[in-house]
User: What shape does this take?
Amino acid sequence: MESSDGVPGEKAGGAAPGTDVLLSVKSMHASYGPIRALRNCSFEVRAGETVAVVGANGAGKSTLMRALSGVVPIASGEVVFDGVRINGRMPHELVAQGLVHIPEGRGTLRHMSVWENLRLAWDMSSNMRPGKRTFDSLLEEAFQRFPRLRERHAQAAGNLSGGEQQMLALARALLSRPRLLLIDEPSLGLSPLLAREAFAVLSEFRADGVTILVVEQNVRAALSLADRGYVLRSGEFVVSGTSQELLHHPEILSQYLGIKHQGSADQVRMRKFTTSFPLKWGG
Ligand SMILES: Nc1ncnc2c1ncn2[C@@H]1O[C@H](COP(=O)(O)OP(=O)(O)OP(=O)(O)O)[C@@H](O)[C@H]1O
Ligand SMILES: [Mg+2]
Assistant: This one.
């Protein structure tokens, strides 16, 4: 486990030699006008890895996702995706290259039908990445994973329940054929049951070889899915380690995230979440 406390600019974790780095971020800064939301963020995601970024409210998790997907400008630093510098690229260009962002709040187009949302996801990604899979075969796969969406295919996305909207967001990601999936708070607003389902779908994506960067306030759920994790505090990475290391050092979570060691209702809830959650632990 590495701590970058007091060591500005130090890389918070790094790729093992000889492995393929899919995303490399060096000294990235991002701001909203005078508000500096990300400072000196450096990290890497290797092909096939699942990496979690955890942090309290306002830590900068969503800003990190927005900066990587071209929604928020990168003030300085360098972001390289699959060997290509992507600073300043537009979100639609990045989707076409396989960098797909499911934003906080799902990002579905509320006035369009479920089918139209899925078709658009396919159209946005298909120009630059022709592949063997057809729209119909991916649509069928999405409907098999999410039978509810087949039933609701003609309904406006805005009329779906929160859980169905999250399913649609994940199905859109499937239709986009991501190489790197950035997903922001997959469990936000969902019941514990639906949150487990969302994480189970992510673990299927992971098993299919999709590289995932997930940000979550549900720290244990995120680390249970991920190989490695980074803790973001006030826009800076302060600690990184394997999920195993972070999960087995609750004092880290307590120090940086305010999660109590024992006995809090929140922790009991998280323990329940993970014990009934058949996913890989650690990396
Ligand atoms: N559109 C915006 N305009 C100005 N400031 C913003 C904007 N969005 C976020 N911020 C600020 O940037 C900082 C980081 O916010 P961000 O939404 O990235 O945090 P977060 O970790 O995703 O929080 P949460 O857990 O609540 O989703 C916060 O101080 C926030 O107030
Ligand atoms: Mg957020």
Notes: The pocket of adenosine-5'-triphosphate (ligand 1) is lined by residues 32, 35, 37, 55, 57-63, 104, 217 (CB under 6 Å).
